[in-house]
Specification:
Blueprint (H helix, E strand, L loop, with lengths): L7 E3 L2 E3 L1 H4 L2 H5 L8 E5 L5 H13 L2 H5 L7 E6 L2 H14 L9 H9 L8 H14 L3 E5 H6 L1 H12 L5 H10 L2 H11 L28 H15 L11
Parallel strand pairs: 3-4, 4-5
Antiparallel strand pairs: 1-2
Bound molecules: adenosine-3'-5'-diphosphate (A3P).
EC number: 2.8.2.-
Protein name: Sulfotransferase
GO molecular function, one term: sulfotransferase activity
């Protein structure tokens, strides 16, 4: 495997060539009417939401109880910035196609200044938040809410997607998309993946809210809170840093 990639600005956003080599195709992507698009900033729960949507559509539920009228739906998953940073930092350590994260102290600054791959978390979460208010076809979901009450959030998703699973089906989706269950299935799926070095840090790491408390010093936390307040002051978007 080649060296860790360098980052550069691409259309104003920090990127690596792994994500821009195919840019024409990405730019020309057109969703089909029955596609469901999942969007997230890295480490917000992309894999988790993908598994839930996959279970909802390709498990038993859709065939039995869905309306046929899915059209252009988008699900956005947002996660609090402190846990994103911790998760992303460990991901950058273990993923050979991500840039080297460097020291943790500097990582917080890179996060705040949009230097991590995919750019500014602040722009991402706020941009989608604004869009979700004008387009009812975007469902804005929080990782923390999924952790707090996955059954409630899956029900909300089902309403959005026009699905009406019965209690047994819901329980099955919950079981299959629980952290431990997914950790087992991901271990198999990733066993031949040579981009990830799970001996450095597992992909399914902890899956909790509040792990940032094990990484931020008191001073780092205070400095980050100050920066966060400034950058989010215009927005009514609120994150739970613990549950
Ligand atoms: P941690 O590193 O904090 O454990 P993404 O898929 O966007 O890369 O996000 C990965 C993060 O989502 C990881 O966070 C991972 O553990 C967490 N995650 C994935 N599946 C999960 C699940 N079923 N329940 C809780 N967290 C999950």
């Amino acid at each position: 495997m080649a060296q860790k990639p360098r980052t550069f600005k691409f259309e104003g956003v920090t990127m690596t060539h792994y994500f821009t080599d195919n840019w024409e195709k990405v730019k020309n992507f057109k969703a089909k009417p029955d596609d469901v698009v999942i969007a997230t900033y890295p480490k917000a729960g992309t894999t988790w939401m993908s598994e839930i949507v996959d279970q909802l559509f390709f498990g038993e539920i859709r065939r039995e109880s869905s309306s046929p009228s899915i059209f252009d739906r988008m699900i956005y998953v947002a996660r609090n910035p402190k846990d994103i940073m911790v998760s992303y930092y460990h991901f950058d350590r273990m993923n050979k196609i991500q840039p080297d994260p460097g020291a943790w102290e500097e990582y917080i600054d890179k996060f705040n200044t949009g230097q991590l791959v995919f750019g500014s978390w602040y722009d991402h979460v706020q941009g989608w938040w604004e869009k979700s208010r004008s387009y009812s076809r975007i469902c804005y979901v929080f990782f923390e809410d999924m952790r707090e009450d996955p059954a409630r959030e899956i029900s909300r998703l089902c309403s959005f997607l026009g699905l009406s699973p019965n209690e047994t089906q819901k329980k099955e989706v919950l079981r299959k998309t629980g952290f431990e269950e997914m950790k087992k299935s991901m271990a198999d799926a990733l066993s031949n993946n040579d981009e990830f070095d799970e001996s450095v840090s597992p992909f399914m790491r902890k899956g909790i809210v509040g792990d940032w408390k094990n990484h931020f010093t008191v001073a780092q936390n205070e400095a980050f809170n100050e920066e966060y307040r400034k950058k989010m002051k215009e927005s009514d978007l609120k994150f739970k840093m613990e549950i």
